[in-house]
Amino acid sequence: MSIKIKSVTDIIDKYDHFVFDMDGVIWTGGQFIESGVQGVKHLIEKGKSVYFLTNNSTKSRQSYFEILTGIDIKTDLNHIYSSSYLTAVYLKMNNYKKAFNLGVIGITEELSAQGIKTKDSDEFKDNQYVTYDIFNSIQPDEDIDCVVSGHNPQFNYYMLCYASLCIQKGCKFVAANPDSFIKVQNRLMPAGGCIQAILERATGQKSLLVGKPSPTALEIIMKQNNIQDKSKIVMIGDNPETDIEFGWNCGIDTILVTTGVTNQEQAEHVKTTYVCDHLYI
Amino acid sequence: MSIKIKSVTDIINKYDHFIFDMDGVIWTGGQFIESGVKGVKSLIEKGKSVYFLTNNSTKSRQSYFEILSGIDIKTDLNHIYSSSYLTAVYLKMNNYKKAFNLGVIGITEELSAQGIKTKDSEEFKNNQYVTYDIFNSIKPDEDIDCVVSGHNPQFNYYMLCYASLCIQKGCKFVAANPDSYIKVQNRLMPAGGCIQAILERATGEKSLLIGKPSSTALEIIMKQNNIEDKSKIVMIGDNPETDIEFGWNCGIDTILVTTGVTSQEQAEHIKTTYVCDHLYI
User: Fold this and answer.
1) Is residue A150 within 8 Å of A174, Cβ to Cβ?
2) Residue pair B245/B212 in contact by the 8 Å Cβ criterion
3) Residues of A with CB below 8 A from B133's CB?
4) pLDDT tens, position by position, A13-23
5) pLDDT tens string B101-144
6) What average pLDDT does range A209-223 have in this prediction?
7) What InterPro entries has UniProt attached to this entry (chain A) (predicted)?
8) 3-state secondary structure at position B145
9) Domain residue ranges of chain B, discontinuous segments joined by +
10) pTM for the full model?
């Protein structure tokens, strides 16, 4: 049975490390969430370790750092874990050399920073009706050894074909972002999970997930920050399928907020440690 | 344990009605399959009832009729069941008035023939990067009451958003084509099932399936042709997930051919009545 808390201050003494999802917690659909922003600032002022962990693969860590700094949140690159960065770390660790980026620029930026080459789906943004002839003409670059899927607001069928053909010739399929959608002015906007889904269907293959709810992210966070005690970590997010599931997969506590894709009524049915409507009052 | 047959003549006396899938049986990726074409012709010559049942939603029945006539297959419109036609019949029977067509022209042609209005995704083929602002500006037409998904080689993210927003405001979601892919020069080309998959993921809703393996098609075929005895019907196809599953769902026998998406080796693991490498020798 989850505990309803009035704000993050209710449980502030219980944890040292606070891992924040961003979409649906700190902002949503281009607008900041006041209680989320204040909640983060309050924890930082009180000397807590605050990390940002997002499945949003469209931006690099540097971009997120600039956004957070722009609203006076005191953090640094080392506390920001975007799925674009986590994917680059994973691919580097496993010796991949060149990726077909089925997401957008954030992925390319982080991969390049790790020395991994990319071919960008952006090259194919001019939409064409893919006939059999055009399909037959698609010959993926020989040196591509992996495909990364992520949110792509300019996705099209040609890009899907190219990615599918890479995977058919043996490339590793990695999904940076499994979020089905994000909330934008109370309507659902398709997110990276949709690109993951269409490519899994086109190839009949399951992707390797780097973003939440895969525990890969926590392994990297704990290692890079010398954290040893999981009981001192709490995950804050709005999405049961990614944020809260991540908590369960990792063995850490979770706060489900109702400022994003989950409303108060839906929250009652989610198995989470805490539920919170306003992180800071 | 499935029975291997040398050609369709082995079992010709057992059945009166032969339902043929087309992609992977009669043609594949723009090229005709000799044994499939001859198999169909030999059955028609012997006085058998031959029907064509395809999940391919890109063409109308009239277009298929012209292709089949073009290679001297003697048939008529009433023996051709494209998923575009079946979808139109279903929507008409259930009083839908206007569809957002997330497939291509074949669906619009059949819907119009049944008096159903359409808004075509083709309107949005010029690819744009869908920002939050652009997403917020999307207001689906008020009078759209259903969304039809199908193969779409010019599909893009904007079309996905429009379709998802229709479904979010209550439109019925119907999938004309659930095929994951078709075989083109020995490589897999994404088909209508990919569009179905991405839209299901974007909305969190399951589509109503009209094409195989849904038994809806057989109900319509039997009714329109006064067929009463299922034991006299056999389904011929290359795709276990659609054609053979269709047979099981309907309670009719099936012939799995290895000229399409299923190889001889893969066929050994499929539960089907018959397996056949060449429908006619």
Assistant:
1) no
2) yes
3) 30
4) 999 999 999 99
5) 999 999 999 999 999 999 999 999 998 999 999 999 999 999 99
6) 92
7) HAD-SF_hydro_IIA (IPR006357)
8) coil
9) 1-16+46-234
10) 0.86
Q: Say how far apart CA A155 and CA A125 lie, in whole Å.
A: 7
CB atoms within 10 A of CB A213: 22
- Which residue does chain B place closest to A157, by CA atoms? B155
Are the beta carbons of B187 and A193 separated by less than 8 Å?
A: no
The span from the first CA to the last CA of chain A, in angstroms, equals 24
Alpha carbons B57 and B38: distance in angstroms, whole number: 24
Show the CA angle centred on residue A106, arms to residues A101 and A112, nearest 5°.
70
Contacts of A127 in chain B (CB under 8 A): 125-127, 154, 156
Complex confidence, ipTM: 0.86
The identity of residue B236, as a single letter, is: I
The pair of structure tokens assigned to B110 is: 């059949």
Class of domain B1-16+46-234: alpha beta
**Is residue B206 packed enough to be buried (19+ CB in 10 Å), middle (13-18) or exposed (0-12)?**
exposed
Q: Which residue has the tokens 């293959």?
A: A205
Q: State the maximum Cα–Cα separation within chain A, in Å, rounded to a whole number.
A: 64
Q: State how far residue A31 is from chain B, nearest Cα, in angstroms.
A: 10
d(CA A24, CA A5) in angstroms, rounded, equals: 18
Residue B250 gets which letter from DSSP?
Answer: H
Range scoring the smallest mean pLDDT among A12-16, B75-79, B216-220 = B216-220
Render A83-118 in DSSP notation, one character per residue.
HHHHHHHHHHHTT--EEEE-S-HHHHHHHHHTT-EE
